[in-house]
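dumping this here so i dont lose it again. seq + smiles for S-adenosylmethionine
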Amino acid sequence: MTLGELLREGEQVISHRSVPRLEVEVLLAWMLGISKEQLFCSHDNGLTDDTIERFWEYVDQLAEGRPLAYIMNEREFYGVPFYVDERVLIPRPETEWLVEKVIELAGEKNRTDFSVVDVGTGSGAIGLSIARSLPRADVTLVDISEEALEVARRNAEGLALSGRVEILQSDLLNTIIDQHFDIIVANLPYIGETKYRFIAHDVEKYEPHVALFGGSNGLQLYTKLFQQIREMKMRPKYLLGEFGFAQTESLQELLDTFFVHHGGRAEIFQDLAGIDRYFIVSLDGLPL
Ligand SMILES: C[S@@+](CC[C@H](N)C(=O)[O-])C[C@H]1O[C@@H](n2cnc3c(N)ncnc32)[C@H](O)[C@@H]1O
């Protein structure tokens, strides 16, 4: 059997699902340790019976909706591959915006007197990308899930950042409430269990529920985080976060109640699809 034939048959198996055909190419190239381009010009196909058998196992998993990132244990985020498995949410490309904004708000790349905490770090995607980009900043990563933190630690090691970042278990800011951070960044679970329950079937089936659901309307964790920030003795300068489809009005109300009515500024930003997706709060009234 040639590589081309195997690819065509694999694509046939997933054709009834919304899995992009490209995923079969990426899968096979990864299994053979070659680039996607090499798949189409390789004469020596390197296929063994074992590879073919495993290929069909993986294609069946894709056809059932298991994300390719969990099969390959890898997802690229902000230009580098992160290890991922079922203990963490697969980092989404739109979340890179938060990293960009934190870097922008930091001003200079080599600032030393600058601290950031990534709340609900999961794989560590946000916090570790910030640590890579701001080599002298103090970066802390927290998550309530010890299992997720094992993945974050593995990524910190893989990116040679273990010595640079602090990785802690914490229910939101509970264990670090007395520390000062210039910036708090959070991509907390925001899918509503009843209201705003916008979730794809495969996401709900495969990704950890502790990373997805944020109480009845999806905003309970953000509400608790906002409350904690209001109670901090040393308030951060900025808070950045990501939220879900149709939650703008409810979120704006929360931002007004906790921050805007107390002298802060808050703004909502859209993603590339033009959907409200991010918020930034300036607690000192500094420009956004
Ligand atoms: C939507 S995922 C985001 C993961 C990662 N930051 C990203 O953007 O890819 C939310 C994360 O928040 C964590 N989480 C849920 N409840 C939490 C809590 N009360 N305190 C801290 N982290 C929490 C979950 O374990 C999960 O890793």
